[in-house]
Amino acid sequence: MFRLFSNSKHCLQMKWVLPRPHWPVNFPPMKPRNSFSTNSVYHQTQTSSLWPKDVGILALEIYFPSQYVEQTELEKYDGVEPGKYTLGLGQKQMGFCAAHEDINSLCLTVVQRLVERSNLSWESIGRLEVGTETIIDKSKAVKTVLMQLFEVSGNTDVEGIDTTNACYGGTASLFNAADWVESSSWDGRYALVVCGDIAVYATGNARPTGGAGAVAMLVGPDAPLALERGLRGTHMEHVYDFYKPDLASEYPVVDGQLSIQCYLRALDRCYATYRKKIESQWQKVGINKPCTLEDFQFMIFHTPFCKLVQKSLARLFLNDFLASSNPNTESGIYKGLKDFSNVKLEETYTSKEVEKAFQKASQELFTKKTEPSLYLSARNGNMYTPSVYGCLASLLAQYSAQQLAGSRIGVFSYGSGLAASMFSLKVSQNSAAGSPLEKLVSSLSDLKTRLDSRKRVSPERFTEIMKLREDTHHLVDHTPHGSKEDLFPGTWYLEQVDEKNRRKYARRPV
C-alpha cells in the first residue's frame, strides 16, 4: 500500500468538472463581498511589535451528508423500545456517507466552499491544519490532498499538517493555527483549520450514534470570535475508552460506560483549571469573584449524542454548587439541593440520584445556554472532530449578530484516549451591518434550509449502504458504489481507486 513513485504528478489525481464552479441554487449564497483581503494581512505586522489583536475565527463553513435516516424509524427497524434513540440519546436523525465519499472528499468540499463563499484567494492562506481520526492512509496526510486546490494559484508555501487523537484533533489544530498567528513565524497570512470525520459503527447499539461531516474555519486577527488569551484548561490521560486498533476496519472498539465517565471526569478537570486561570486574570484587575456558569452566555460541548450534553451542563452546575462556600439551598438556583452539599465530585459519576437532581435544577440554564447549539447534532449525529464546531455553527445560525455581540461562549472539546480542553470565545461587540460578526452570522443563516434539502432514506436502504461501505472501503482497482446525483451540487466525491491505492476525485457540477 505504501510505495514510492518516480512521477509524483500521477500519485493522486483529481478532476475539475467545471473550470469555475458556482454555488448550488438550493444553498442560498452569501452576497458577493470583499470580506477578506485577497492577498494577506501582513500590514499588521509592520505597524506594531505587539501580538495581533483578537485572534480567532473569522469565517466558518460546514458540510454534512446529503442523506439521512430517521431515528424513530431506525428504532422500529432495530426492534428496540420506542424512544431508545430519540429520548435516550436525544437524537432525531443521522446523516451518513455512501461508499463514494471519504475523508478527503469531505474536506475538499468544505475547504473549497469556505474559500469561494468568503471571496478568498488561495495565496492569502499560509497555514492549513487538518484534525481527523478517519485514517485512510498511514502516511499520506489529508492536508496534502487539499493542497491540490492550491495548484492553480501556485501557492505551495502553506504550513501545517494533520493532527490525530479521536475527536480532539480539530481543537488541537485550532490552537496550533491561533498560536501560529500570534508567533514570530507568522507571515501575515490567514490560517485555515479543517475538521472532518466519518463516524460509522458496526450493526448494534452504537450504530445510532454515528454521523459525518466537516467544518472549515478561517483563523486570523480582528476576529468576530476571538480566542480568549490564556484561558485554556486541559486534561489528558491514558485510557482505552474508544480506540481503533484494527487498521483494516472503519469501526472502533468502544467501552460506552467508561467513555462517558472519562468524558465527565475530563470535563470536571478542565473546568477547574479554566476557572482557576480566569479567576487569576480577574484578580489582577481587582475583581474577586468565583467563575460560574453565569459568566458564560453560552456553553457548547463535543456531542457524541445530545443527551450526554445535557448531563454535561448539569455536571458544570454541580461543580459550581460544590465550589460555592455557602450555597443558598432554600431559594434561587440551588433550591432543594441541600442533601447533596457534602457529596464528593469524584464519587458521583455513576450516581443516578445526583444526575437526575442536577439535570432538573439546571434545566433552565441548559435551555438558555446550550440547547440551541444542538440543532445540527440532533439532526446529523456525531461528526467526531467537527462535532463541537458544528455546535458553534448551530448557535450562530439561530441568533442575530446583535443578540450574540459581547457574549462569552464556553467550549468543551473531548477526544477519547484521552485529550480534552475547555476554552472560551469572546464575541465581538460590533454587530453593525457589514461587520465581520454580521457577515459570519449571515453566512450560516441557511443551515436549516440545507438540512431540509437532504434526502430521507429508509432504514433498510441505510443498512444496505452501510454494508456496501463495509465490504468495499478497503478495495483497490475499484470504482466506489454510489450515485453522484445523491450528493449536494458542488460536492467532491471519490471517483476511482487504482491498482496502487491512488485515489482520484471529481466534483459534482453545481
UniProtKB/TrEMBL annotation:
UniProt-listed Enzyme Commission number(s): 2.3.3.10
GO CC list: mitochondrion
**Record domain Hydroxymethylglutaryl-coenzyme A synthase C-terminal: where:** 226-508
The record lists the membrane-crossing segments as: none
Q: Catalytic residues per the record?
A: E133, C167, H302
Q: Does the keyword Phosphoprotein apply?
A: yes
- Among the record's GO biological process terms, what is one? farnesyl diphosphate biosynthetic process, mevalonate pathway
Identify the keywords attached in UniProt to this record, alphabetized.
Answer: Acetylation, Cholesterol biosynthesis, Cholesterol metabolism, Lipid biosynthesis, Lipid metabolism, Mitochondrion, Phosphoprotein, Steroid biosynthesis, Steroid metabolism, Sterol biosynthesis, Sterol metabolism, Transferase, Transit peptide
Where is the Hydroxymethylglutaryl-coenzyme A synthase N-terminal domain positioned along the sequence? 51-224
Q: In which pathway does it act?
A: Metabolic intermediate biosynthesis; (R)-mevalonate biosynthesis; (R)-mevalonate from acetyl-CoA: step 2/3
| A GO molecular-function descriptor | hydroxymethylglutaryl-CoA synthase activity
Record-listed CoA binding positions: N205, S259, K307, K311
Which Pfam families does the entry mention?
HMG_CoA_synt_C, HMG_CoA_synt_N
What compartments host this protein? Mitochondrion
Q: Which reaction does it catalyse?
A: acetoacetyl-CoA + acetyl-CoA + H2O = (3S)-3-hydroxy-3-methylglutaryl-CoA + CoA + H(+)
The subunit field of the Swiss-Prot or TrEMBL record says: Homodimer.
Q: Which family does it belong to?
A: Belongs to the thiolase-like superfamily. HMG-CoA synthase family.
Stated role: Catalyzes the first irreversible step in ketogenesis, condensing acetyl-CoA to acetoacetyl-CoA to form HMG-CoA, which is converted by HMG-CoA reductase (HMGCR) into mevalonate.
**PANTHER family membership:** 3-HYDROXY-3-METHYLGLUTARYL COENZYME A SYNTHASE (PTHR43323), HYDROXYMETHYLGLUTARYL-COA SYNTHASE, MITOCHONDRIAL (PTHR43323:SF1)
Protein name, UniProt field: Hydroxymethylglutaryl-CoA synthase
State the organism of origin.
Answer: Salvator merianae
